[in-house]
Amino acid sequence: MIDSLVEKFARKEAVVGIVGLGYVGLPLLLRYAEAGFQVVGFDVDPVKVNKILCGESYLRHIPADRISAASIGNKIGVTTDFARAAEVDALLICVPTPLGSHHEPDLSFVVTTIDELLPFLHQGQIVSLESTTYPGTTDELIKPRLEERSFVVGEDIFLVYSPEREDPGNVDFSTRTIPKVYGGDTDNCRKAGHALYGQVIDQLVPVSSTQAAEMTKLLENIYRAVNIGLVNELKMVADRMNIDIREVIDAAATKPFGFTPFYPGPGLGGHCIPIDPFYLTWKAREFGLHTRFIELAGEVNTTMPEWVVGKVADSLNDQSKPLRGAKILVLGIAYKKNVDDLRESPAVVLLDLLQQKGAEVSYSDPHVPSFPKIRKFSFTLDSVALSRETLQGVDCVIIATNHDDVDYEMVRSNAPLIVDTRGVYVGNFANVVRA
Question: 227-302 in CATH: which number?
Fold first, then answer.
Protein backbone atom coordinates (compact mmCIF):
# COMPACT_ATOMS: atom_id res chain seq x y z
CA MET A 1 0.00 0.00 0.00
CA ILE A 2 2.80 2.44 0.85
CA ASP A 3 4.51 1.86 -2.50
CA SER A 4 1.42 2.70 -4.52
CA LEU A 5 0.84 5.80 -2.37
CA VAL A 6 4.42 6.97 -2.92
CA GLU A 7 3.99 6.49 -6.67
CA LYS A 8 0.74 8.44 -6.62
CA PHE A 9 2.48 11.43 -5.06
CA ALA A 10 5.43 11.10 -7.45
CA ARG A 11 3.02 11.35 -10.39
CA LYS A 12 1.23 14.26 -8.65
CA GLU A 13 -2.04 12.36 -8.90
CA ALA A 14 -2.66 12.46 -5.15
CA VAL A 15 -5.25 14.82 -3.69
CA VAL A 16 -4.03 16.79 -0.68
CA GLY A 17 -6.32 18.14 2.04
CA ILE A 18 -5.33 21.12 4.20
CA VAL A 19 -7.34 21.50 7.40
CA GLY A 20 -7.22 25.04 8.82
CA LEU A 21 -6.61 27.87 6.36
CA GLY A 22 -4.81 30.39 8.53
CA TYR A 23 -1.22 31.62 8.49
CA VAL A 24 0.06 28.05 8.10
CA GLY A 25 -2.66 26.32 6.10
CA LEU A 26 -3.24 28.91 3.38
CA PRO A 27 0.42 29.04 2.23
CA LEU A 28 0.47 25.22 2.16
CA LEU A 29 -2.74 25.13 0.13
CA LEU A 30 -1.25 27.49 -2.44
CA ARG A 31 2.10 25.72 -2.54
CA TYR A 32 0.55 22.32 -3.32
CA ALA A 33 -1.67 23.85 -6.00
CA GLU A 34 1.28 25.69 -7.54
CA ALA A 35 3.23 22.42 -7.61
CA GLY A 36 0.46 20.78 -9.64
CA PHE A 37 -1.52 18.89 -7.00
CA GLN A 38 -5.27 18.87 -6.63
CA VAL A 39 -5.96 20.42 -3.22
CA VAL A 40 -8.98 20.63 -0.93
CA GLY A 41 -8.91 23.22 1.84
CA PHE A 42 -11.05 22.80 4.95
CA ASP A 43 -12.00 25.52 7.42
CA VAL A 44 -14.84 26.06 9.87
CA ASP A 45 -14.91 29.77 8.96
CA PRO A 46 -17.17 30.31 5.93
CA VAL A 47 -15.76 33.83 5.47
CA LYS A 48 -12.31 32.42 4.68
CA VAL A 49 -13.78 29.82 2.37
CA ASN A 50 -15.80 32.40 0.45
CA LYS A 51 -12.86 34.76 0.09
CA ILE A 52 -10.70 32.02 -1.43
CA LEU A 53 -13.53 31.03 -3.77
CA CYS A 54 -13.70 34.67 -4.88
CA GLY A 55 -9.93 34.86 -5.35
CA GLU A 56 -9.49 37.20 -2.39
CA SER A 57 -6.89 37.13 0.37
CA TYR A 58 -7.47 37.71 4.08
CA LEU A 59 -3.75 37.70 4.96
CA ARG A 60 -1.76 40.80 4.16
CA HIS A 61 1.44 38.98 3.17
CA ILE A 62 -0.37 36.74 0.66
CA PRO A 63 -1.52 38.69 -2.43
CA ALA A 64 -4.92 37.98 -3.93
CA ASP A 65 -3.45 37.39 -7.39
CA ARG A 66 -1.56 34.40 -5.99
CA ILE A 67 -4.85 32.84 -4.89
CA SER A 68 -6.44 33.59 -8.25
CA ALA A 69 -3.48 32.12 -10.15
CA ALA A 70 -3.51 28.94 -8.06
CA SER A 71 -7.23 28.52 -8.70
CA ILE A 72 -6.75 28.43 -12.48
CA GLY A 73 -7.47 24.95 -13.75
CA ASN A 74 -9.65 24.16 -10.74
CA LYS A 75 -6.69 22.90 -8.71
CA ILE A 76 -8.15 24.33 -5.49
CA GLY A 77 -11.38 23.41 -3.75
CA VAL A 78 -12.32 24.89 -0.38
CA THR A 79 -15.13 23.86 1.92
CA THR A 80 -16.54 23.80 5.43
CA ASP A 81 -17.76 20.23 4.83
CA PHE A 82 -15.41 17.77 6.54
CA ALA A 83 -17.10 14.87 4.76
CA ARG A 84 -14.95 15.74 1.76
CA ALA A 85 -11.97 14.37 3.69
CA ALA A 86 -12.96 11.04 2.17
CA GLU A 87 -11.83 12.39 -1.23
CA VAL A 88 -8.20 13.09 -0.31
CA ASP A 89 -5.04 11.01 -0.02
CA ALA A 90 -3.46 13.13 2.72
CA LEU A 91 -4.69 15.46 5.44
CA LEU A 92 -2.41 18.17 6.80
CA ILE A 93 -3.82 19.51 10.07
CA CYS A 94 -2.95 23.16 10.71
CA VAL A 95 -5.18 24.28 13.57
CA PRO A 96 -4.38 26.55 16.54
CA THR A 97 -2.77 25.25 19.73
CA PRO A 98 -3.10 28.14 22.20
CA LEU A 99 -2.57 28.23 25.94
CA GLY A 100 -5.34 27.95 28.49
CA SER A 101 -5.98 30.47 31.25
CA HIS A 102 -3.36 28.85 33.47
CA HIS A 103 -0.68 28.50 30.76
CA GLU A 104 -1.62 24.88 30.15
CA PRO A 105 -1.77 23.47 26.58
CA ASP A 106 -5.14 23.85 24.91
CA LEU A 107 -5.36 21.06 22.33
CA SER A 108 -9.13 21.29 21.93
CA PHE A 109 -8.82 22.42 18.30
CA VAL A 110 -6.64 19.42 17.45
CA VAL A 111 -8.91 16.93 19.23
CA THR A 112 -12.10 18.38 17.77
CA THR A 113 -10.64 18.39 14.26
CA ILE A 114 -9.47 14.78 14.45
CA ASP A 115 -12.81 13.62 15.85
CA GLU A 116 -14.68 15.39 13.04
CA LEU A 117 -12.41 13.84 10.40
CA LEU A 118 -12.44 10.28 11.76
CA PRO A 119 -15.71 9.10 10.16
CA PHE A 120 -14.33 9.99 6.73
CA LEU A 121 -10.81 8.54 6.94
CA HIS A 122 -9.96 5.47 4.88
CA GLN A 123 -7.07 3.11 4.23
CA GLY A 124 -4.15 4.47 2.26
CA GLN A 125 -4.35 8.00 3.68
CA ILE A 126 -1.63 10.09 5.30
CA VAL A 127 -2.48 12.15 8.38
CA SER A 128 0.11 14.82 9.20
CA LEU A 129 -0.17 17.16 12.17
CA GLU A 130 1.57 20.52 11.67
CA SER A 131 0.31 22.39 14.74
CA THR A 132 2.95 23.20 17.34
CA THR A 133 2.59 21.03 20.43
CA TYR A 134 4.41 19.10 23.14
CA PRO A 135 6.32 15.84 22.48
CA GLY A 136 3.93 12.91 22.55
CA THR A 137 0.82 14.63 21.21
CA THR A 138 0.71 12.71 17.92
CA ASP A 139 1.21 9.35 19.62
CA GLU A 140 -1.01 10.05 22.62
CA LEU A 141 -3.96 11.91 21.08
CA ILE A 142 -4.13 11.06 17.38
CA LYS A 143 -2.76 7.53 17.10
CA PRO A 144 -5.22 5.98 19.62
CA ARG A 145 -8.15 7.59 17.79
CA LEU A 146 -6.99 6.07 14.51
CA GLU A 147 -6.55 2.68 16.17
CA GLU A 148 -10.06 2.86 17.62
CA ARG A 149 -11.25 2.96 14.02
CA SER A 150 -9.33 -0.32 13.44
CA PHE A 151 -6.56 1.37 11.43
CA VAL A 152 -3.08 -0.09 11.79
CA VAL A 153 -0.70 2.88 11.77
CA GLY A 154 2.19 2.23 9.42
CA GLU A 155 0.34 -0.42 7.44
CA ASP A 156 -2.99 0.88 6.19
CA ILE A 157 -2.84 4.50 7.39
CA PHE A 158 0.25 6.65 7.86
CA LEU A 159 0.79 9.10 10.70
CA VAL A 160 3.32 11.94 10.46
CA TYR A 161 4.24 14.98 12.49
CA SER A 162 5.81 17.92 10.64
CA PRO A 163 6.04 21.26 12.48
CA GLU A 164 5.13 24.40 10.60
CA ARG A 165 7.94 26.93 10.19
CA GLU A 166 6.08 29.83 8.63
CA ASP A 167 7.41 33.35 9.23
CA PRO A 168 4.76 35.79 7.97
CA GLY A 169 6.22 38.89 6.36
CA ASN A 170 9.69 37.39 5.86
CA VAL A 171 10.42 37.97 2.16
CA ASP A 172 13.65 35.96 2.27
CA PHE A 173 11.97 32.59 2.87
CA SER A 174 8.83 30.87 1.60
CA THR A 175 6.98 27.62 2.28
CA ARG A 176 9.00 26.01 -0.50
CA THR A 177 12.46 27.17 0.65
CA ILE A 178 12.16 26.61 4.41
CA PRO A 179 13.60 23.12 5.17
CA LYS A 180 10.84 20.75 6.26
CA VAL A 181 11.29 18.58 9.36
CA TYR A 182 9.07 15.51 9.54
CA GLY A 183 8.93 12.42 11.72
CA GLY A 184 7.09 9.11 11.79
CA ASP A 185 7.25 6.17 14.17
CA THR A 186 7.54 3.51 11.45
CA ASP A 187 9.54 3.21 8.25
CA ASN A 188 6.37 3.38 6.20
CA CYS A 189 5.20 6.53 7.98
CA ARG A 190 8.53 8.18 7.24
CA LYS A 191 8.25 7.09 3.59
CA ALA A 192 4.78 8.62 3.53
CA GLY A 193 6.13 11.87 4.97
CA HIS A 194 8.83 12.00 2.30
CA ALA A 195 6.25 11.39 -0.44
CA LEU A 196 3.90 14.02 0.99
CA TYR A 197 6.44 16.84 1.25
CA GLY A 198 9.14 15.87 -1.25
CA GLN A 199 7.31 17.29 -4.28
CA VAL A 200 6.68 20.75 -2.77
CA ILE A 201 9.58 21.52 -0.40
CA ASP A 202 13.17 21.98 -1.57
CA GLN A 203 14.86 20.35 1.45
CA LEU A 204 13.49 17.64 3.72
CA VAL A 205 14.82 16.86 7.20
CA PRO A 206 13.60 13.44 8.38
CA VAL A 207 13.81 12.50 12.05
CA SER A 208 13.24 9.14 13.71
CA SER A 209 9.88 9.74 15.41
CA THR A 210 6.96 12.10 15.77
CA GLN A 211 8.23 12.99 19.24
CA ALA A 212 11.61 14.06 17.87
CA ALA A 213 9.87 16.26 15.31
CA GLU A 214 7.61 17.77 17.98
CA MET A 215 10.62 18.49 20.19
CA THR A 216 12.50 20.07 17.28
CA LYS A 217 9.90 22.80 16.90
CA LEU A 218 9.90 23.53 20.62
CA LEU A 219 13.69 23.74 20.69
CA GLU A 220 13.71 26.26 17.84
CA ASN A 221 11.31 28.62 19.55
CA ILE A 222 12.52 28.10 23.11
CA TYR A 223 16.02 28.98 21.89
CA ARG A 224 14.67 32.31 20.67
CA ALA A 225 12.49 32.91 23.71
CA VAL A 226 15.35 32.29 26.15
CA ASN A 227 17.77 34.53 24.27
CA ILE A 228 15.21 37.30 23.94
CA GLY A 229 14.50 36.96 27.66
CA LEU A 230 18.23 37.35 28.31
CA VAL A 231 18.55 40.57 26.31
CA ASN A 232 15.32 41.92 27.80
CA GLU A 233 16.76 41.44 31.28
CA LEU A 234 20.07 42.95 30.20
CA LYS A 235 18.13 45.88 28.75
CA MET A 236 16.72 46.67 32.18
CA VAL A 237 20.17 46.46 33.76
CA ALA A 238 21.71 48.61 31.02
CA ASP A 239 18.91 51.15 31.34
CA ARG A 240 19.62 51.56 35.05
CA MET A 241 23.30 52.07 34.18
CA ASN A 242 22.44 54.57 31.41
CA ILE A 243 23.89 52.29 28.71
CA ASP A 244 22.27 51.80 25.29
CA ILE A 245 21.77 48.02 25.11
CA ARG A 246 21.32 48.07 21.33
CA GLU A 247 24.69 49.73 20.89
CA VAL A 248 26.17 46.98 23.04
CA ILE A 249 24.46 44.21 21.06
CA ASP A 250 25.60 45.66 17.73
CA ALA A 251 29.15 45.84 19.01
CA ALA A 252 29.06 42.27 20.31
CA ALA A 253 27.65 41.08 16.98
CA THR A 254 30.90 42.02 15.25
CA LYS A 255 32.48 38.95 16.85
CA PRO A 256 32.63 36.44 13.97
CA PHE A 257 32.05 33.37 16.16
CA GLY A 258 30.24 32.32 19.32
CA PHE A 259 27.63 35.09 19.36
CA THR A 260 24.20 35.50 17.76
CA PRO A 261 22.50 38.87 18.20
CA PHE A 262 19.01 39.02 19.68
CA TYR A 263 17.26 42.33 20.30
CA PRO A 264 14.96 43.43 23.14
CA GLY A 265 11.41 44.66 22.75
CA PRO A 266 8.15 45.28 24.61
CA GLY A 267 7.52 41.54 25.00
CA LEU A 268 6.97 38.49 22.82
CA GLY A 269 4.19 38.03 20.30
CA GLY A 270 2.99 35.66 17.62
CA HIS A 271 1.56 32.18 17.63
CA CYS A 272 4.77 30.34 18.63
CA ILE A 273 7.47 32.01 20.71
CA PRO A 274 5.29 33.23 23.63
CA ILE A 275 3.46 29.88 23.78
CA ASP A 276 5.81 27.03 22.91
CA PRO A 277 8.01 27.19 26.04
CA PHE A 278 4.98 26.62 28.24
CA TYR A 279 4.03 23.52 26.23
CA LEU A 280 7.35 21.92 27.13
CA THR A 281 7.37 23.06 30.77
CA TRP A 282 3.86 21.58 31.18
CA LYS A 283 4.87 18.26 29.64
CA ALA A 284 8.14 18.12 31.61
CA ARG A 285 6.19 18.00 34.88
CA GLU A 286 4.81 14.63 33.80
CA PHE A 287 8.39 13.37 34.04
CA GLY A 288 9.07 15.02 37.40
CA LEU A 289 11.15 17.84 35.92
CA HIS A 290 10.94 21.57 36.61
CA THR A 291 12.27 23.61 33.69
CA ARG A 292 13.35 26.60 35.74
CA PHE A 293 15.57 28.17 33.10
CA ILE A 294 12.84 28.18 30.45
CA GLU A 295 10.19 29.41 32.86
CA LEU A 296 12.42 32.27 34.06
CA ALA A 297 12.86 33.48 30.47
CA GLY A 298 9.08 33.29 30.02
CA GLU A 299 8.57 35.30 33.19
CA VAL A 300 10.96 38.03 32.02
CA ASN A 301 9.35 38.28 28.59
CA THR A 302 5.82 38.27 29.99
CA THR A 303 6.54 41.19 32.32
CA MET A 304 8.09 43.42 29.64
CA PRO A 305 4.86 45.33 28.85
CA GLU A 306 4.62 46.29 32.53
CA TRP A 307 8.20 47.54 32.41
CA VAL A 308 7.40 49.66 29.35
CA VAL A 309 4.36 51.15 31.12
CA GLY A 310 6.67 52.02 34.01
CA LYS A 311 8.99 53.83 31.60
CA VAL A 312 6.03 55.74 30.18
CA ALA A 313 4.87 56.76 33.67
CA ASP A 314 8.38 57.87 34.68
CA SER A 315 8.85 59.83 31.46
CA LEU A 316 5.52 61.61 31.87
CA ASN A 317 6.37 62.30 35.51
CA ASP A 318 9.57 64.02 34.38
CA GLN A 319 7.28 66.40 32.48
CA SER A 320 5.04 66.87 35.55
CA LYS A 321 2.23 64.86 33.95
CA PRO A 322 0.41 61.89 35.52
CA LEU A 323 -0.26 58.69 33.61
CA ARG A 324 -3.92 58.80 34.61
CA GLY A 325 -5.70 60.97 32.08
CA ALA A 326 -2.71 61.11 29.73
CA LYS A 327 -3.36 60.67 26.01
CA ILE A 328 -1.21 57.75 24.83
CA LEU A 329 -0.89 56.70 21.20
CA VAL A 330 0.48 53.18 20.63
CA LEU A 331 2.20 53.09 17.25
CA GLY A 332 1.96 49.59 15.75
CA ILE A 333 -0.12 46.88 17.43
CA ALA A 334 0.74 43.81 15.30
CA TYR A 335 3.11 41.38 17.01
CA LYS A 336 5.88 42.06 14.47
CA LYS A 337 6.55 44.58 11.77
CA ASN A 338 4.89 44.53 8.35
CA VAL A 339 2.15 42.02 9.25
CA ASP A 340 -1.47 42.35 10.39
CA ASP A 341 -1.32 39.56 13.00
CA LEU A 342 -2.25 40.47 16.58
CA ARG A 343 -1.83 37.04 18.18
CA GLU A 344 -0.18 37.42 21.61
CA SER A 345 0.96 40.92 20.62
CA PRO A 346 2.64 42.77 23.50
CA ALA A 347 1.29 46.02 22.05
CA VAL A 348 -2.24 44.86 22.85
CA VAL A 349 -1.17 44.12 26.42
CA LEU A 350 0.27 47.65 26.56
CA LEU A 351 -3.08 49.11 25.49
CA ASP A 352 -4.85 47.13 28.19
CA LEU A 353 -2.39 48.04 30.98
CA LEU A 354 -2.45 51.73 30.06
CA GLN A 355 -6.23 51.78 30.00
CA GLN A 356 -6.37 50.07 33.39
CA LYS A 357 -4.19 52.83 34.80
CA GLY A 358 -6.53 55.52 33.53
CA ALA A 359 -4.76 56.61 30.37
CA GLU A 360 -6.74 57.61 27.30
CA VAL A 361 -5.45 55.19 24.68
CA SER A 362 -5.46 55.15 20.90
CA TYR A 363 -3.45 53.34 18.29
CA SER A 364 -2.13 53.75 14.78
CA ASP A 365 -1.29 50.75 12.62
CA PRO A 366 -1.40 50.84 8.80
CA HIS A 367 -2.10 47.09 8.69
CA VAL A 368 -4.85 46.91 11.34
CA PRO A 369 -7.55 49.45 10.42
CA SER A 370 -9.93 48.38 13.20
CA PHE A 371 -9.28 46.47 16.40
CA PRO A 372 -10.59 42.93 15.79
CA LYS A 373 -12.33 40.58 18.19
CA ILE A 374 -9.68 38.48 19.91
CA ARG A 375 -9.85 36.03 22.77
CA LYS A 376 -8.47 38.05 25.68
CA PHE A 377 -9.06 41.71 24.84
CA SER A 378 -11.81 43.92 23.50
CA PHE A 379 -11.29 47.51 22.41
CA THR A 380 -13.67 49.67 20.41
CA LEU A 381 -10.89 51.40 18.53
CA ASP A 382 -9.97 52.23 14.96
CA SER A 383 -6.51 53.07 13.76
CA VAL A 384 -5.93 56.82 13.69
CA ALA A 385 -4.06 58.41 10.80
CA LEU A 386 -0.66 59.79 11.67
CA SER A 387 -0.55 63.54 11.17
CA ARG A 388 1.04 66.55 12.81
CA GLU A 389 -2.26 67.32 14.53
CA THR A 390 -2.67 63.77 15.82
CA LEU A 391 0.87 63.57 17.17
CA GLN A 392 0.82 67.04 18.72
CA GLY A 393 -2.49 66.20 20.39
CA VAL A 394 -1.19 63.33 22.52
CA ASP A 395 1.06 63.30 25.56
CA CYS A 396 3.12 60.28 24.54
CA VAL A 397 3.70 57.96 21.56
CA ILE A 398 4.85 54.41 22.26
CA ILE A 399 6.57 52.72 19.32
CA ALA A 400 5.50 49.15 19.99
CA THR A 401 5.83 47.71 16.48
CA ASN A 402 8.24 49.19 13.96
CA HIS A 403 6.40 48.85 10.64
CA ASP A 404 8.48 50.01 7.68
CA ASP A 405 5.81 52.19 6.10
CA VAL A 406 5.73 54.81 8.87
CA ASP A 407 7.33 58.27 8.63
CA TYR A 408 9.33 58.10 11.85
CA GLU A 409 11.01 61.44 11.23
CA MET A 410 7.59 63.09 11.09
CA VAL A 411 6.69 61.29 14.32
CA ARG A 412 9.85 62.50 16.04
CA SER A 413 9.37 66.07 14.84
CA ASN A 414 5.84 66.36 16.20
CA ALA A 415 5.34 64.06 19.18
CA PRO A 416 6.07 65.71 22.54
CA LEU A 417 7.33 62.42 24.01
CA ILE A 418 8.25 59.12 22.37
CA VAL A 419 8.93 55.86 24.21
CA ASP A 420 10.82 53.74 21.68
CA THR A 421 10.71 50.00 22.45
CA ARG A 422 12.10 48.90 19.06
CA GLY A 423 15.28 50.92 18.62
CA VAL A 424 13.87 52.99 15.76
CA TYR A 425 15.84 56.09 16.69
CA VAL A 426 19.63 56.09 16.76
CA GLY A 427 21.26 58.96 18.58
CA ASN A 428 20.10 61.27 21.32
CA PHE A 429 16.88 63.24 20.95
CA ALA A 430 15.28 65.35 23.64
CA ASN A 431 11.82 63.82 23.19
CA VAL A 432 12.87 60.15 22.73
CA VAL A 433 13.13 57.69 25.64
CA ARG A 434 14.40 54.18 24.97
CA ALA A 435 12.55 51.31 26.60
Answer: 1.10.1040
